[in-house]
Amino acid sequence: MDIDKVIADITFAIYSDHELISENMNPFMLYEEEFQGNLLDIGCGQSPVILEMLHTPLNFHAIDPDKKQIEYLIERIERLSPGREIHTYKEPFKSGLFPEVRFNYIVMSNLLHLKIQMPHLEEFINDVEQIMAAGARVLVIVHAGEDKGSDRFRYFSIEDLELLFPRERYSVIYKAQHWGDPPKFNIRFGERYCSMVLDEADITDPIQRRIETDAYNEGNDFSSISFMAQRIL
């Protein structure tokens, strides 16, 4: 089973465009009156940030190695804002893709906590800095909490992010930690995801399926941090 494709398909199937936007924390909107220039969403997925900001004058760039996510994003944009132009890149990020563009807003949502895709965080941040405009604002959303020994995910504190974006080069302008029960859409996602995985494993007993699904939902920690820093150099 192609897990990335499954995630893209389920997200597109169960989240309406407006639900996807409403579930997202987007502190960029605090600066709506100042919007100008270019925005880049790295590892964009179906980019609720871009979807929420389509009415603004920003030029949008979205990059993701998962081609299916890019296709779904384009379809969502066409529904919400027909004819709206966006630059898309179906490949991993590297600054050399943007030799003549400098970005005023950069999104790294649900990206830095991925251990396999992001093995060297400092090197990645340094590469992103090559394409930042003066005063660029960077939005980061990551899993929050103590290290759980996961092979897939890192868990961050606000202090961890402040070290990644040191005060010598950045000013922290927004930080919030979110705790609590998973949103209803995350529960719906878990139900659909488990159903597909259990079908693939040929597990048909309804009691066993319920046990496996409940264990999946209980094992997921939906705590997160939203963090925004502004480049000062």
Strand segment count? 7
Low-confidence stretches: none
- Can you tell me the number of structural domains? 1
Q: Radius of gyration, rounded?
A: 18 Å
The shape is globular
| Average of per-residue pLDDT values | 88
Q: Which sequence of strands runs across the widest sheet?
A: 3-2-1-4-5-7-6
Element-level helix/strand string: HHEHEHEEHEHEHHE
The structural class is alpha/beta
CATH topology: Rossmann fold
* CATH top level class name: Alpha Beta
Estimate the helix proportion, in percent.
25-40%
Helix count, per DSSP?
8
**CATH architecture assignment:** 3-Layer(aba) Sandwich
The proportion of strand residues reads 15-25%
CATH-level-4 superfamily name: Vaccinia Virus protein VP39
Question: How would a textbook summarize the main sheet?
Answer: 7 strands, mixed
